[in-house]
Amino acid sequence: NAGVTQTPKFRVLKTGQSMTLLCAQDMNHEYMYWYRQDPGMGLRLIHYSVGEGTTAKGEVPDGYNVSRLKKQNFLLGLESAAPSQTSVYFCASGATTGELFFGEGSRLTVL
Amino acid sequence: AQSVTQPDIHITVSEGASLELRCNYSYGATPYLFWYVQSPGQGLQLLLKYFSGDTLVQGIKGFEAEFKRSQSSFNLRKPSVHWSDAAEYFCAYDNQAGTALIFGKGTTLSVSS
């Protein structure tokens, strides 16, 4: 049972480049989330989805877009990467908002 | 605005000693509260949760937490710490819509031998 899988796990971008992070879950969860983790800042919610075809903004949505075309996948896009988006990104899913299952993280560096 | 605060950035505890990690909340009504743990290089794992009812909740790995409305706190405790408990611990609450978790900034626990 894979749980929550994030790809890629590591990526280096140049300022202005675009990329997409993919999150896939095999637990048939309705809720999916993207967080970013920065030293001293904890985890901050970027965007989330409460079901297929829905998305909503979190605490720090600027500079990111998301899509949930299939229930099992939640994509996080950066259209024009900036150094401030250097971070570790975590995807999570859950049948409820309380018990979330996390991926292992994707480390993004923007030069 | 609702929030959780973890006052301690870093705590060091001797192996076998007791542990208490603090979490204070600011919330209009009784919140749903959670503690998660993150081992180095890993994602987060749920330790325990409080929705209502009994204010002392038991979790996995021997952890417990007590909800104290009078102190607006939800502190995490463990009677005897093991070296494998070294990790980062996050307190969290649900947002007002009940659709997402908002995390505190975390407390890093180091365990000394």
Task: Summarize the model shown.
The complex is a heterodimer of chains A (111) and B (113). Chain A is mainly β and 111 residues long.
Task: Describe, in plain words, how this protein is organized in 3D.
The complex is a heterodimer of chains A (111) and B (113). Chain A is an all-beta fold and 111 residues long. Chain A is built from no helices and eleven strands. Chain A has strands at residues 4-7, 10-13, 19-25, 31-38, 42-49, 56-57, 65-67, 73-78, 87-94, 101-102, 106-110. In chain A, strands 2, 4, 5, 6, 9, 10 and 11 form a seven-stranded mixed β-sheet that branches. Chain A has a four-stranded antiparallel β-sheet with strand order 1-3-8-7, with no helix packed on it. In chain A, strand 7 and strand 8 (73-78) form a beta hairpin. The mean pLDDT of chain A is 95. Chain B has 113 residues and is mainly β. Chain B is built from no helices and twelve strands. Chain B has strands at residues 3-5, 10-14, 19-21, 24-26, 33-38, 44-50, 56-58, 64-68, 73-78, 87-94, 101-103, 107-112. In chain B, strands 2, 5, 6, 10, 11 and 12 form a six-stranded mixed β-sheet that branches. In chain B, strand 8 and strand 9 form a beta hairpin. The N and C termini of chain B lie far apart (41 Å). Classes of the chains: A mainly beta (111), B mainly beta (113). The interface between A and B is medium-sized, with 26 and 23 residues.
